[in-house]
């Protein structure tokens, strides 16, 4: 472990980025499906949307818990600064996730489902928007004195963070739409194709504006951004040719390359433009100890996530019992 000591800060920077990216992508299509449910007509269709993620959404959210715990352990200064500066969006995100989770459990038991439909959709929208504002608030720069946040209660709210929030919400909805291509059929899948096509260009525009706002890009960032553009072209091709696997994979690649382009532009800053990873890191022996624990935990989590997707593979058809619904009678449609 002593040989790794000079690299521990960088190792943890990339581990936390990887965990955050996993969460944003995996819980992203969950939140995106919730956003799309706001525009879905009929209880049967909403039941199909909820059933498509019923088996995986719990584990997807686990990555957020792990990210927060590890951030507190290895970069406690960043944890303190971010929570001080982003108290409002973080609180809104947590309440949104709570409302969404409650909606999953109560919708099936409630006679009047409108309240739980709204909790699922609006909770997902609030959580996605809050995540965008939180990310945008950090990227736009937080006023600091040394390692202390000295800004105001609303410094995270600005045009740039609003742009990032729009990109995250529309990007999550795009992820959700392309995920539905794999999990549904019939008119629900047709609507998902139309939704994905309609969302693709706003996502590209928001991503382009975001990249234009980040200056002093290293060469590797340009490589990632070019790869993201190629992935977007693949996405359009997949949607036009109605190739569902290609569409979903291209959306994942677009998110992956875009996030990596931003990450390489920011490195080594944890809170740009003031706080680097080295300045915010815990003492080396704590970094080493937590790395051993994470080395045992993360492979198990990754395996479990992969296994659950394998178990719950396949489409959510009309003949199945929907989440919180009884199967419709023959010929009956919402």
Named CATH topology? Formate dehydrogenase/DMSO reductase fold
Biggest sheet statistics: 2 strands, antiparallel
- Look at the structure and give the CATH class: Mainly Alpha
The overall pLDDT, averaged over residues, is: 87
Features:
12 helices, globular, two-stranded antiparallel sheet, 334 residues, two-stranded antiparallel ribbon, Formate dehydrogenase/DMSO reductase fold, mainly alpha
Describe this structure in words.
By secondary structure, this protein is mostly helical. The protein has one domain: Up-down Bundle (Formate dehydrogenase/DMSO reductase fold), CATH 1.20.1630.10. It contains twelve helices and four strands, in the order ααααααββααααββαα. The strands form two sheets. Strands 1-2 form a two-stranded antiparallel ribbon. It has a two-stranded antiparallel ribbon with strand order 3-4. The chain is globular and about 55 Å long.
């Amino acid at each position: 472990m002593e040989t790794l000591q000079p690299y521990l800060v960088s190792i943890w920077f990339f581990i936390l980025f990887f965990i955050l990216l996993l969460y944003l992508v995996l819980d992203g299509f969950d939140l995106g499906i919730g956003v799309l449910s706001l525009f879905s007509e009929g209880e049967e269709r909403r039941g199909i949307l909820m059933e498509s993620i019923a088996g995986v959404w719990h584990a997807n959210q686990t990555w957020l818990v792990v990210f927060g715990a590890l951030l507190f352990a290895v970069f406690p200064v960043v944890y303190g600064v971010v929570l001080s500066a982003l108290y409002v969006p973080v609180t809104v995100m947590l309440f949104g996730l709570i409302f969404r989770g409650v909606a999953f459990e109560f919708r099936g038991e409630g006679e009047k489902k409108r309240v739980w439909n709204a909790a699922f959709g609006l909770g997902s929208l609030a959580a996605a928007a809050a995540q965008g504002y939180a990310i945008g608030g950090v990227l736009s720069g937080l006023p600091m004195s040394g390692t202390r946040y000295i800004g105001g209660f609303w410094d995270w709210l600005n045009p740039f963070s609003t742009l990032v929030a729009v990109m995250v919400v529309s990007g999550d909805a795009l992820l959700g739409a392309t995920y539905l291509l794999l999990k549904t059929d019939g008119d629900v899948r047709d609507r998902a194709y139309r939704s994905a096509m309609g969302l693709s260009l706003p996502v590209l525009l928001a991503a382009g504006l975001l990249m234009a706002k980040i200056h002093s890009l290293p060469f590797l960032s340009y490589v990632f951004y070019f790869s993201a553009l190629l992935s977007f072209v693949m996405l359009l091709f997949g949607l036009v040719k109605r190739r569902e696997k290609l569409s979903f994979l291209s959306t994942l690649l677009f998110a992956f390359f875009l996030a990596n382009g931003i990450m390489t532009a920011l490195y080594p800053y944890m809170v740009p433009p003031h706080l680097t990873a080295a300045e915010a890191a815990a003492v080396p022996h704590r970094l080493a100890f937590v790395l051993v624990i994470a080395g045992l935990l993360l492979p198990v989590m990754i395996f479990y996530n992969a296994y659950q997707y394998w178990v719950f593979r396949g489409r959510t058809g009309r003949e199945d019992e929907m989440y919180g619904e009884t199967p419709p009678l023959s010929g009956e449609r919402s």
